[in-house]
UniProtKB/TrEMBL annotation, chains A, B:
Required cofactor names: Mg(2+)
Record-given protein name: Polyprenyl synthetase family protein
Family to which the UniProt record says this protein belongs: Belongs to the FPP/GGPP synthase family.
Domain of life: Bacteria
Pfam families: polyprenyl_synt
The keyword Hydrolase belongs to this UniProt entry's keyword annotation: no
Keywords: Magnesium, Metal-binding, Transferase
Entry's Gene Ontology molecular function annotations: metal ion binding; prenyltransferase activity
GO term, biological process aspect, one: isoprenoid biosynthetic process
PANTHER family associated with the record: ALL TRANS-POLYPRENYL-DIPHOSPHATE SYNTHASE PDSS1, GERANYLGERANYL PYROPHOSPHATE SYNTHASE
Biological source species: Stappia albiluteola
Signal sequence annotation: none
Length: 338, 338
């Protein structure tokens, strides 16, 4: 049976991340232990900040991809655990630097590290975690995995710089937006998945399929995230509705609403997102405009398209409970929006 | 003949970095070409900022160490050029992040990147250069070189966090200061030198000697730098006298002056460096206090001690023009202070 199904239009029980979590629970416990031990340092502030971030949760989707795509090919050893932890460190470093760049106050429902320890410490502890991530990758000893993850590291930063240029500019195009999310989010999902077959010595076609799956899942994930910022449950995300709006981020829902709105609508978005003149009721006004133009629905539609592509990418991979769980993870990421 | 000589008390001509520059000129041209090509990106701001930093000069001492310590062992190939460029990228990334953390306005006599492009771009372009640095190291394919340089990357960040904790605290001890400069400066000198014998397949004793040389040279270099901040020619350094003083940095000259001064002196340093209440004449007052307590002279004396140790570390390495040039580079770093 094909793993491709209509994404998130299944009847019956809601799709869940739980099967993947259950299958990877042993490996993820090892990842969490490694993360805590490698976040240690004689320099007091480092483990403090690292533990703050690490204990603040998040689903650890990226390291789970690394474990799952290695175990799927019967990987034996500890290398996948080490690579998974280094993927999470890369992600955590990015979050620390992102919050500084975006001047964010909150992260996953807690005060952002930069509000607690300052921008300076956030920059430097991010650098430290990135250094530790590379050290761990070197421990694993796969030059190909190192190549994939160091490439992702450069691409993520490039995407962030691109986003900075696009930030608070209502002229940003859909193509520019897609380029940004591919670099800043999907590239790490892709790399996290790709290194699984690589360290398992699976063949190049498997490596490419895993990469495609991670990339498309990452794109779907970010599109849904950007839609959720204007609606949906904030408890799931640990982020409040309207964060992107208040920070002047130009995401796909906004790009679609501007393209489809009137000149007066455009002036509204310009005032809120470029000039940061946001008054009472403006967030409601933004959400209303997104609804009128079908911008949220069409953002989700695009996420579904990438979700379908992620499911197709799974087809050549070995059938079994891991593949089924990876397919359900795609459905779950998209179903978050209901 | 031993390469150990009394550092910088030679009669006759001044010690110079020129012999090392001349010997490495061909390799450094290749390094510079590689740096410019790898600093490229479709994202406009990246090459702009990278070129600003790269063209603003500096002596490129670190990549020269990598080239010299590889060529000394007859290295054939391009790997040493690639590693040298990645060392310079690591250094440049550190400078970008440092300027953000220190809120510096100037770097090598030009406006700091953060003043021209903003803190956000400086953080992200630093991340990009670090990612590129790791990609280049992976291209060389030496896991041992990767281990050494990724370790340095984590240690540098750790040192910066430590410095942040010590910053603007006149209780900082000499031991804490030494720990900071070993991590934030000397670790990269050590790694840059160590990877030379490593990729040349020289034996472990050579690798250790190169590392020791780099470490001690780095310590001497930073001690002299910290002394120069309170006197000497600013044209040489592209930094103005009193930068550290205005930023509240607690360096060895200040630590010695506080330890040897009166309670009134201590109150003076506390006011200037902790409370940042600096008025006209305070920099002169600081320099006068450093002179009265022999703090600058003793800082230089410590630099000389590390310089001697760097020269001793060179002894087991192959004799010849490269070793002579590396010895003279030590003398040059210390002679900057006269």
């Amino acid at each position: 049976m094909s793993v491709v199904a209509s994404v998130s239009d299944k009847k019956g029980k809601d799709p869940s991340i739980q099967p993947l979590v259950d299958l990877m629970s042993e490996g993820m416990e090892a990842v969490n232990r490694l993360i805590l031990s490698k976040a240690g340092s004689n320099v007091e502030m480092i483990p403090e900040i690292a533990r703050h971030l690490i204990s603040s949760g998040g689903k650890r989707l990226r390291p789970m991809l690394t474990l799952a795509l290695a175990e799927m090919f019967g990987y034996r050893g500890e290398g996948h655990v080490t690579l998974a932890a280094s993927v999470e460190f890369m992600h955590t470093a990015t979050l620390l630097h992102d919050d500084v760049v975006d001047e964010s106050d909150m992260r996953r429902g807690k005060l952002a590290a930069r509000k607690l320890w300052g921008n300076q410490a956030s920059v430097l502890v991010g650098d430290y975690l990135l250094g530790q991530a590379f050290k761990m990758m070197v421990d694993v000893g796969s030059l190909e995995a190192l190549r994939i993850l160091s490439e992702a590291s450069a691409v993520i930063a490039e995407g962030e710089v691109l986003q900075l240029g696009a930030a608070q500019n209502v002229e940003t195009t859909e193509a520019q937006y897609m380029q940004v999310i591919e670099a800043k989010t999907a590239a790490l999902f892709a790399a996290a998945a790709e290194v699984g077959p690589v360290i398992s010595n699976a063949d190049a076609a498997m490596q490419q399929a895993a990469r495609r799956y991670g990339m498309d899942l990452g794109l779907a994930f970010q599109l849904v995230d950007d839609a959720l910022d204007y609606g949906g449950s904030s408890a799931d995300l640990g982020k409040d509705i309207g964060d992107d709006f208040r920070e002047g981020k130009i995401t796909l829902p906004v790009i679609l609403a501007i393209a489809r709105g009137s000149d007066a609508d455009r002036a509204f978005w310009k005032r809120c997102l470029e000039a940061h003149e946001i008054g009472d009721g403006d967030l409601d006004g933004a959400i209303e405009r997104l609804r009128q133009t079908d911008a949220l629905a069409d953002t989700i539609l695009r996420a579904r398209t990438f979700g379908q592509s992620a499911l197709r990418a799974l087809e050549p991979l070995p059938a079994g409970p891991i593949r089924d769980a990876l397919a359900e993870a795609v459905e779950f990421c998209i179903a978050r929006v209901h």
